[in-house]
Amino acid sequence: MDLVFTTDELEPSKRYAAWQDAICDVYVHVDVNAERRSDYEGFIREARFGTVTMTDVLLSEQRITRRERHIAKLDKDCYYVEFVQRGKVNILQASQTLLSNPRVGAIFSASEAYDLECVGKVRSLYLEIPRKEFAARFSESKLPVAMTIPTGRGLGRIAAEFCATIAAEGSSLDETVRSRLGTELMDVLALALDMGDRDELSEDATAQKSRLRSVKAWIEQHLTDPDLSLETIAKSNGVSLRHLHYLFRLTDMSVSEWITDRRLHRCYDVLTRPELRSLSVTEVAYRFGFSSSSHFSTVFRKKFGHSPSDLRRR
Length: 314
What we know:
- α4 (154-169) runs antiparallel to α5.
- This protein has helices at 12-27, 68-71, 131-135, 154-169, 175-194, 196-200, 205-221, 230-236, 241-247, 255-271, 281-287, 293-304, 308-313, and strands at 2-6, 31-33, 43-49, 52-59, 62-66, 78-93, 96-100, 104-109, 114-130, 147-150.
- The protein has two domains: 46-196, Regulatory protein AraC (Jelly Rolls, Sandwich), CATH 2.60.120.280; 205-313, Homeodomain-like (Arc Repressor Mutant, subunit A, Orthogonal Bundle), CATH 1.10.10.
- Strands 1, 2, 3, 4, 5, 6, 7, 8, 9 and 10 form a ten-stranded antiparallel sheet that branches.
- With 314 residues, the chain is an alpha+beta fold.
């Protein structure tokens, strides 16, 4: 791939400013902000495969922002597809957050406002895909929007590995072959997005149980979030909402019932710990995601046979 920009040849004190100039005003029209600027490191390599542009990017920890003033400078309407090789990137677009990492890719719109939060040092492959040409591969009801792409298995893995292979080997090929590869890459990506749910539901029982354990562990870590939603859980774990419900068929509870049950047990534990008696019942309820103390007391009594206040007095 052709080198577009690198900080390697610059003095450490000048790297971040040079990166800002290269990224903000020349390459992609965004704002970047990094807290640690003294040891900044990054590069951009690029290759074109017909109408598809691929970049291999190294980013130090930073936040990348695109707003209307940046979008006004764009001369094309396209999607971005990201396959993270190392690190993590949180993609914020259209009031949702997509969490991407080496096992979960993402697709989002380049011509709508977004934020990218690079957690740690990130190495990633980006595809710039023309929206109209890519959208022609879907029915109108299935046009892709901002969504994750599981890349640990199935068609998502095939798409990610195909992309990585092209990045490593494709630059030496002639223009005609590269153009065909770009078309075929869009076909594979479209198939992975179109078949996402069906591919997920083909997991064997062992894989489903393993994924369910992983999802439950993630939920446990976020029980205190009052805004925890099924959509957030699904996107953060690289599964569709439909597949999330399907996984919980392995239990005797729905997803929502399981979350409420776990929150109640965590509250029960806090209420019986003498060292936490300074917390009121209402504070305990709010701490674990309940938005109403009366509702909390009702479901608590139904679960344990007595009210939270009775438990604490006993």
